[in-house]
């Protein structure tokens, strides 16, 4: 990690207009949770709350926040040429990309996983494990998405389109149609964590074992950063 790059990353992330979309997602989720709570008698049952947090939290909020943060911090710097400033410094390019990924990961946890925890408390209160399970599932999915989106952002010409297609086709469509794909899905890993840790199992058994889901996310993050660092290392200033 490089403290200067971390500070620059935070400044760059929150200095662009896209950050408002990243902020809007948790606000919408908390507003919906509040509305559901207000229109239901007392607290929502564990199964219904878990379903909402899995479908809207893991399925929409987490990938959108991770996508916006990753493309803002990495893709935008490639587009406007500001990445050249870092590439000319005597800093390992793996350090550059890993420092940026840490900033993105922190943003994902703050703007996706923590709001899922709060939404869980709004829906079911503090008497069940659903809220904590939602937070854990949000963290696991965020870790995986950051690794995946980071490598896509550094290897594709139209990385925003590539990240969107990956989310919409692979995560949202193919993984729900083909059962074996759940073993290679960031969404399925986060969902499995919620189902394992929550008191209610919702509409079915967890798709993958808990340990596999956690390890899968960590491996996706590590491999994604390694591949992105390798790609960055192979670049020349003229390519930018």
TrEMBL record:
Spell out the protein name for this chain. ABC-2 type transport system permease protein
**What organism is listed for this UniProt entry?**
Flexivirga oryzae
> Any stretches that span the bilayer, and where are they?
20-40, 52-74, 102-124, 130-153, 160-179, 210-229
Q: Does the keyword section mention Nucleotidyltransferase? A: no
Keywords linked to the UniProt accession: Membrane, Transmembrane, Transmembrane helix
The residue stretches assigned to a coiled coil in this entry are none
């Amino acid at each position: 990690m490089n403290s200067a790059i971390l500070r620059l990353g935070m400044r760059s992330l929150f200095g662009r207009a896209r950050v408002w979309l990243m902020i809007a997602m948790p606000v919408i989720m908390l507003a919906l949770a509040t509305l559901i709570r207000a229109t239901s008698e007392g607290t929502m049952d564990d199964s219904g709350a878990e379903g909402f947090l899995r479908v809207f939290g893991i399925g929409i909020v987490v990938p959108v926040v991770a996508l916006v943060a990753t493309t803002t911090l990495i893709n935008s710097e490639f587009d406007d040429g500001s990445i050249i400033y870092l590439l000319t410094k005597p800093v390992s390019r793996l350090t550059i990309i890993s420092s940026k990924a840490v900033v993105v990961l922190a943003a994902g946890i703050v703007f996706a996983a923590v709001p899922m925890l709060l939404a869980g408390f709004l829906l079911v209160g503090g008497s069940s494990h659903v809220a904590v399970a939602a937070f854990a599932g949000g963290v696991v999915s965020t870790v995986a998405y950051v690794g995946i989106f980071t490598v896509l952002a550094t290897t594709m010409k139209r990385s925003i389109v590539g990240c969107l297609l990956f989310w919409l086709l692979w995560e949202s469509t193919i993984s729900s149609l083909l059962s074996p794909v759940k073993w290679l899905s960031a969404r399925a890993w986060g969902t499995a964590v919620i189902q394992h840790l929550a008191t209610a199992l919702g509409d079915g058994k967890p798709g993958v074992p808990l340990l596999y889901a956690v390890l899968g996310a960590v491996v996706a993050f590590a491999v994604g950063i390694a591949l992105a660092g390798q790609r960055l290392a192979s670049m020349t200033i003229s390519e930018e």
